[in-house]
Design brief:
Elements lengths: L2 E2 L2 E7 L4 H12 L4 E7 L4 E6 L1 E2 H10 L3 E3 L16 H7 L1 H22 L5 H29 L4 H14 L3 H30 L8 E8 L2 E8 L8 E4 L9 E5 L2 E4 L1 H4 L4 E4 L4 E2 L4 E2 L4 E5 L7 H13 L4 H32 L13 H11 L3 H20 L2 E3 L2 H8 L3 E5 H5 E11 L9 H5 L10 H13 L6 H12 L10 E6 L3 E6 L2 E7 H4 L7 H12 L3 E7 L2 E12 L3 H10 L4 E5 L4 H11 L3 E3 L4 H15 L2 E5 L5 H6 L2 E5 L7 H6 L2 E3 L6 H35 L5 H20 L10
Parallel strand pairs: 17-24, 17-26, 24-25, 26-27, 27-28
Antiparallel strand pairs: 1-5, 2-4, 2-6, 3-4, 7-8, 7-9, 9-15, 10-13, 10-15, 11-12, 11-14, 16-28, 18-23, 19-20, 20-21, 21-22, 22-23
Helix pairs in contact: 1-5, 3-4, 4-5, 4-7, 5-6, 5-7, 6-7, 6-11, 7-12, 7-26, 9-12, 10-11, 10-12, 11-25, 11-26, 12-25, 12-26, 13-25, 16-17, 20-25, 25-26
Length: 751
Amino acid sequence: MTTVQKQQTFHIQGLDCPDCARSLQNGVSKLEGVESCVLNFNTGKLDIVGDVPAEAVVRRVQEFGNEVVEPEVKADQPHTHRTPNFISFMWQRRDTRMALIGALLILPGVIFGELLGISHPILDLFSLAALLAAAGPIYRSAFQAIRVNHEVNINVLMSVASIGAVIIGAYTEAGMVMVLFAIGEALEGYAADRSRDSIRSLMEVVPSSATLLVPQNGSFRPQQVNVSSLQIGDRLLVKPGERIPMDGQVISGISSVNQAPITGESSLIEKRSGEKVFASSINGEGSLEILVTHLAEDNTISRVVKMVEEAQEKRAPAQRFVDQFAKFYTPFIVVLAVAVMTIPPLFFGQPFLNPSPDTFGWFYRGLALLVVGCPCALVISTPVSLISAISNAARHGLLIKGGAHLETLSHVQAIAFDKTGTLTLGKPAVVSIHTPDCSCKFSPEQADSNPSQQAEYCPACLDLLALASAVEEHSEHPLAQAILQQAEKFHLRDKYPPAQTVSALTGRGIVGMVGEQTIIISSHNHFHEMIPEKLAHHEIVEEETRKGYTPLLITVDGEYRGAISVADTLRPTSQTALAHLKKLGVKALVMLSGDNQAAAEVIGKQIGVTDIRAELLPKNKIDAVEELMETYGSVAMIGDGINDAPALARADIGIAIGAAQGGTAQALETADIALMSENLERIPFAVKLSKAAMRTIQLNVGFALAIKLVFLILVLMGMGTMWMAVFADMGASLLVTLYGLRLLKRPQPLF
């Protein structure tokens, strides 16, 4: 290894608890040349800034009982490592393997000495052998903590307790303490590795090879290649049922694609020429030819994994509080233990050593107090819960960019929603059709509910839609696309041939010839200049306009034939999402819109927001967010567009939607939480998950402290032994870890 200037990153193996990570970080930071050093327990990444030889870093890491390893996941390769079962996990590492051997060696002393009351030098030898087998790495770490860091950590507490037990002849207890502590530390490391696996496994869904179409004699020859060799502009073939290997754009073929690894939703999305596809998505029934648009390391799934790993490095306030508490708590326990050992014998005539096998002296009680004071359960309770919650969110298409944001979200009392593109789909759609011969009040939703009868349902309205689509066939205008999409949905685009001699009526509409008929499509404001519609329809059209719709009036050979109203439509998940947020206790659900007040109120009432604010510029949205913050405290802002980015940045929590489906890069980069899909029902899931995570952390910390208090009292009363105390601490660590790991799978999204 060579000296590297300025910035280096190392991947550390063998981090079993946050306190061990903190101690190692302090040790590395004291190396000459290190300007700053950060070791994240959640990811195992050690980032160093400074002119320090890599060899010196590796040596220091090894001195503290850990190893530097190569990163296990690379952007262009699927991840194949999985954490094995606990016994296999322990057997892989020399230190933990010795703890397993120590567990076998301590059994004779526990069975015959502690349980049956039989004493014999051979039993003591077995216990001492168990102590030496399990204690080696713990003693080494304790020595380095004192020598290098000048601090007292967990390993120092346990080392002093075990050595003290040997001094007073409690060999079995000394061995038992070390064996249980080593196994408990390994259990914590195993649980942390399992939670890290949930992020690593995201990369498993990316295929390692792809079918490259190589040009040859005017055609393309398929060739299997590694995804790492692919370049932007390469042409790939993806067969039915295969996973899409790279981010790209469809250039040929039609198929349905499952994008669950990216968006968290397993619903099939139809993909055709010109549409984006993502690496790791599962192709459906058709073959697709795809143009590669990103390198392997820049794929959406790679960026997702990177963002989640970075999120794990951003600690929540709750975690920082626990870490600081543990930092002062451990020295306090040492001082308290010394006081317990000395004050009763010196000032109250109490026995210093054990007066009998069944009665504990105050020296032994002080040693037991050191064991009780081990803060393992306390410090492991928070990071495991946060890792698990962030991983759960990522698997369902939610990127939470740090534990701090998860914690803040749990306190949100008001949520502000951008309207266009967030609560609504953000693109026009046909919402109603009216003709003079129609008395059925035709609406597309009504016709959709009975598709088998579309050909018979309201022929006048369907015919009007077919005529309009023939005129708009070659138009790129958003309103024209709405008519064409509705006609395609009802299989009407082939009813009439595309219009001829189509021309625009500047600022008024469009005219074209369909067969021998002259068709004019015009806005309501300009329609009276040509043909006055019937009085009844004038009132209908006025009502549509008041709703915020855009009526398009149509004439055939100078005769009024009807109106097609187009509007931005509600996102299908908006109403249910807001209803669930209300159930979760969010007090204010506010819609922020740049539309006119009448149009905004129509949408707002349909969705169920509690407050509607219209005709807002981007600056006005910031003012609205600040006003909500003054009224409700913690506020979240949800949006998708460039004009939402300032408000997203100003809110306590900014949530960008559709990050994988058209949401803008500005909104995604500014937001604290990114919703990869456009399913707003993931927002209540995020709120529910944040509340569950904070509740889990609170219960874990409370439980860990309660266990400490109970055994503190038992030890002071002379009723608690050292091995009972370490067993209780190991059990508490295991319980809080398992309880935190529940967040990997619960809660789940409702849909």
